[in-house]
Write a structure and sequence with these properties.
Blueprint (H helix, E strand, L loop, with lengths): L1 H20 L4 E3 L14 E6 L2 E10 L3 E10 L4 E7 L4 E7 L9 E2 L5 E4 L6 H10 L15 E5 L9 H17 L3 E5 L2 H8 L8 H8 L13 H6 L5 E4 L2 E4 L14 H10 L13 H6 L10 H4 L4 H10 L4 E4 L8 E3 L4 E3 L10 E3 L5 E6 L2 E6 L4 E3 L1
Length: 382
């Protein structure tokens, strides 16, 4: 028995060491409310060019589910609300059917707060913004003319995708009223959902789609309001001299005569197309590649790059540095002499607990200074 328990203890210690070394965690304590579908929504679809169909799910597994549906003209003043079952809260927002493609370049010297890879964690995202004084307790915008940059992968791997997307939509409108900006940069998981790849999506949304009488890919297709809004977004932006993209910029992009606007136009043209590499090399293939592309590249952390290699892509767009998510870090940090900032950290989950406990971080850029912003709102210069 001593040998047996000794072996088990040794394996347990080794397992914990490996888990900590890999920055992993053990999930436990799943809250059953994660699968609550009562009041879930809204799910908004175009019936035709001039009519929107807005759906909320009502009911429960025992008594059955039904849809609360309303039709509106695209010219109507529409107010919707989104329910979050974990703490029984709501937030409301107007639905503006005029969807515009955002600019790609901004230069106003206002503060920039960048966060990435929230992965369907509405509560985590909301509470972090409150502690960072981007919004108040009533979810009102308090960041003035500042820039909130969301560097991709705000969907999948969680049970609050709908809440997160509508919350971003609400923040975007609130920020504009105060002269601020919310930048929703598309990451590879947003692409997954637009392209019908659901290997990382919560099974909750298969049930949602079924109740709506649709397939999972219909939730974010071009007939879906939230899908159409998402498809208007950029994959690369230059804000006060810093580039923001989910994956990174491969050095080979310096070999092509291309602008930031053109990078985004190429990606938007391929949002709903499954990517398969072709034999011939081209700038479109480089930009959309699932290995070297803007939304996918991990080379800053995995390839043997020189300082010169890294700076090729940054210099191509006349930038000071690039801020990326996609590849998990233990903390927000700078690399390559301050030319690259990795901001993807493991965030807490809404509906379960983790050991070791995870805490969110973001990057604040104030003038020429860069700060780690911690979960409690404190900041540390890096």
């Amino acid at each position: 028995m001593k040998h047996i328990f000794g072996t088990i203890g040794t394996l347990l210690v080794v397992g914990i060491v490996v888990l900590l070394f890999l920055n992993g965690s053990f999930e436990y304590g799943n809250n059953p409310l994660r699968l609550n579908l009562d009041k879930e929504g809204p799910y908004v679809f175009y019936k035709n060019d001039s009519t929107l169909n807005i759906n909320y799910i009502r009911g429960n597994k025992t008594d059955g589910f039904y849809l609360d549906q309303e039709e509106y003209s695209t010219h109507d003043a529409i107010t919707a609300s989104c329910f979050f079952p974990l703490d029984s809260t709501n937030f409301s927002f107007p639905i503006n059917t005029k969807i515009e493609t955002p600019k790609t370049t901004y230069a106003d010297n206002e503060k920039v707060l960048a966060i990435s890879d929230i992965e369907s964690g509405y509560k985590t995202f909301r509470d972090f913004l409150i502690n960072s004084k981007v919004i108040d307790l009533d979810l009102n915008w308090t960041f003035g003319k500042g820039h909130l940059v969301l560097v991709g992968d705000f969907v999948d791997r969680g049970f609050s995708t709908t809440q997160v997307l509508w919350f971003i939509y609400k923040l975007e409108q609130d920020a504009k009223i105060h002269g601020g900006n919310v930048h929703f940069i598309i990451g590879n998981h947003e692409l997954y959902n637009m392209q019908g790849k659901f290997k990382s999506a919560s099974y909750k949304y298969y049930g949602v789609a079924s109740i709506l009488g649709k397939q999972h890919h219909d939730l974010y297709n071009q007939n879906s309001f939230i899908g159409k809004w998402m498809a208007s977004k950029n994959t690369l932006e230059l804000i006060n001299g810093n580039l923001f993209t989910h994956g990174g910029i491969h050095p080979d992009i310096a070999n092509y005569d291309i602008t930031i606007d053109e990078v985004n136009e190429i990606n938007r043209a391929n949002y709903y197309k499954l990517y398969f590499p072709k034999p011939e090399e081209s700038v479109e293939q480089l930009i959309t590649s699932s290995r070297k592309g803007i939304c996918w590249y991990r080379g800053y952390f995995r390839d043997d790059l020189s300082q010169e290699d890294v700076e090729k892509g940054i210099d191509k767009f006349n930038a000071k540095a690039v801020v990326v998510g996609h590849t998990v870090q233990r903390k927000v940090k700078k690399l390559y002499n301050g030319k690259v900032f990795g901001i993807d950290v493991k965030h807490p989950k809404d509906y379960n607990k983790n050991w070791p406990n995870k805490k969110s971080e973001a990057l604040l850029i104030d003038g020429e200074k860069y700060y780690r912003v911690l979960a409690n709102g404190n900041k540390k210069e890096i």
